[in-house]
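User: Please predict structures.

Assistant: First:
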Amino acid sequence: MHKETAEDLVSDIFIKALDKINSFDAQKGSFNSWIYRIARNTVIDHYRTQKKDKNIDDVWDLSSNEDIAVDVDVRAQMEKVQEHFSKLKAEQRDIVVMRLWQGMSHKEIADVLEKNESAVKVAYSRLISQMRKEVLLLILTWIVINI
């Protein structure tokens, strides 16, 4: 994403939040979840209207000043991660990203996705279990090939 696009999206998000501040209800969830939902929906809307050749999930920023061997290894690992993530539905990817990379609680994720907290917990648990099995299979395949 270009810096200017990101700045425009942030501006749009805060304008939407200010316009809808009266609709915030603390009984339905935290302010963080409410603003995150606005941000998520704004970004999704942006990419839907762009209709570029690239999918948002296919864009990975791998620029680095590291040496080439490290960069190649990182690219190979990122391709594996991207392959696993591409198998997931968009909402499943969101759950994993919000939980693991953004450190959100199950309740916060449920608020953002407008889902039941128990459903998010079950979905997350199943996703992690599935990913562990796939990683184990990759490791076993690597061992067999390299013996």
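Second:
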Amino acid sequence: MTHTESEVKPTPLTARHEALGARMVPFAGYLMPVQYTSIITEHRAVRSSVGIFDLSHMGEFEVQGPGTLEFLERMTTNDVGSLQFYQAQYSLMLNDDGGIVDDLLIYNLPGRAMLVVNAANLEKDFAWLQKHCPPGITLTNRSDETALIAIQGPKAEAVMTRIADFDLASVKYYHAAEGKVTGKTIVFSRTGYTGEDGFEIYLPNAMAQDCWDAAMEAGAEFGITPIGLGARDTLRLEMKFALYGNDIDDSTNPIEAGLGWVVKPEKSIEFIGHTHVVAVKQGGPKRKLVAFVLNEKAIPRHGCAIQAGGSPIGSVTSGTHSPSLDKGIGMGYVATEYSKVGQTIGIVIRGNPVPATIIKPPFVQNTSHK
């Protein structure tokens, strides 16, 4: 199904967001909450206690058949063959030129694999996989029938314990399980894009509202807070997690984006885009994605020019005010010779270069993920 500009779909939880007074906006074809109270309040709730997110706009694909893992080895950069059952993996799909089609999660489940992709890339990703799908492999788009709720923060396990009948301590970081949540057997995992401990619950649309209500009730004593897209963005940026469409896209090589750690050119099955990635790895990238903190009070934004010595060296891809640091922070691509930690750069905001320092990410240390 293709989303036109005028067609905006609700998620199974839209009624809950509206009842909570959320400010709703169109996002990747869906009507989504951008904030409920304030971005800073929601952000700090996740860092200090627990937040709940509706991520039902994300795409879920199911891959089945003999040779599933071999197919995914060719389609993605990480070592899919190393995955045990119920293990999750962050990876990339590349195009023929080594650019990033999407960043995604792969779950190795008994009898199938599940891919979780970015909402804005859903149709593009599915078409790319279909184009390369060999005989005997069944590829199914489960996105429209799957709701996704995330519970994130230091108190996430305490909340999840009350709604799940499962030994949660046995579910390690980047692993999944199938067990009873609010009385129904579903898949859930322990990953997340906030830097905090947390769980993602994949469930049929019909179960979404009951699960949301149960989690809200279970988390009441911890002050569980609904989290919108605004705080989701500030949380991921504080960890220097890339956002597709801002920090990475189909013209970005994984090496320049600092994602070489999920690229395994030595694995036995050569992935699409392999030659271009190896060439950049061997020759060195001409630009690099860096993290920076402003030295003065200002907020960097996507598209701001980056200077060194008065000359342009790159541009900002993501920027915000960090609620945790109370400073302007951001990411951007700069010419490699200016990418060292400690380098002073200028971020051009409203025509004025504001001094900033390149740092070693993440911006926020000592988070609660296990």
